[in-house]
Amino acid sequence: MSARRILQIIRYVARRDSPVSVKEIARHLSMPRPTVYRLINGLEDEEVLQRCADTNGIELSNGFLRSMIIGASNAQIIAGFEEALDCTANTWNATAFLGRLSGKVIEIVHVTTPPKLDTGYIHPGLNVRPAHACSAARAILAFVSQKKADEVLGNDHTAFTDQTITDKDALLEELQQTRERGYAICDEEIDPGITSVSAPIRVGRAGVVCSIGIVAPVRKMQEFGLTTVGEYLHQKAKGAVINLNQNLYQLLN
Predict the structure, then answer these.
(1) 20 to 30 A Cα–Cα from 232, which one of 47, 98, 160, 239?
(2) C-alpha to C-alpha distance for 122 and 239, rounded to whole angstroms
(3) Alpha-carbon torsion (107, 109, 114, 118), positive or negative
């Protein structure tokens, strides 16, 4: 009985857009308030739920949120962002891609090619990316802890072109610029003549775990305007999180 009630509480809190009171949980789930208090206290001890500092309301803990995302399959993550990727590819008629932090590496887990193929397109591949040079990686690493960024960056900063940033201090400066403008740029650092732009995807209190970007020939990207593309991706990432949340919460059903 307690296990069923615990799941009911977690599901209810997960679906709410803001912290919820114990009284509201008890009323909505038709549970005695003392029972709800007892179960919530246990879930707080296990760091599944936490109290909001401002309202003292109940919400999913940062760690539990992040565990949900880390534990989700690529298919579940992709499903949450597929609409945003399709829209991005259609808007710019360029390849859109989704990057994901997975342990100590960053991968491109999904690619959406442009609808008009008569002009050609760039395909970045579905694989682990060079963290020091890839915009998908920089858009994530700029918003994680310094310890995590150092772990993912490692010490192998291979120069793929004469534009590749390989110096550690210069890489850290590039991550700082990414934080300031809100998106990352890889301008001919992996392949000559190819530019990509990526924006971080921040999933509530869980932080940044994914990125969304586009890749195209330098000339085409210059016509778009890097700032225009970056700001578009930044806004698109915000809207896409709603769909991701809905997909992740299905894990609790």
Answers:
(1) 160
(2) 25
(3) positive
- Give the residue among 80, 125, 133, 92 at the shortest CA–CA distance from 242: 80
120-129 pLDDT, tens digit per residue, is 789 998 989 9
d(CA 221, CA 187): 10
Helical (H) or strand (E) element with 199: strand 194-202
For residue 50, list its beta bridge partners. Answer: 59
Q: What is the DSSP letter of 20?
A: B
pLDDT higher than threshold 90 for residue 7? no
Write down all domains in the chain, each with its CATH number in brackets: 2-60 (1.10.10.10), 72-251 (3.30.450.40)
**Cα–Cα distance, 127 to 65 (Å, whole number):** 25
CA 23 to chain centre: 33
Q: In a 3-state reduction of DSSP, which class is residue 54? A: coil
Contact between 185 and 197 (Cβ < 8 Å): yes
Cβ contact 189:218 at 8 Å: no
H-type helices in the chain, by residue range? Answer: 2-15, 22-29, 33-45, 62-71, 74-92, 135-141, 146-153, 168-181, 218-224, 226-249
Residue 187's pLDDT band, with cuts at 50, 70 and 90, is: very high
What is the per-residue pLDDT across 130-172, written as a single tens digit (0 to 9) for each? Answer: 999 999 999 999 999 999 999 999 988 999 999 999 999 999 9
Rounded CA Rg of the chain: 21
For residue 14, the one-letter residue type is: A
- Residue 105 token pair: 């590496």
The CA-atom distances, in angstroms, between 200 and each of 49, 84, 132, 154, 187 are 25, 13, 16, 21, 17
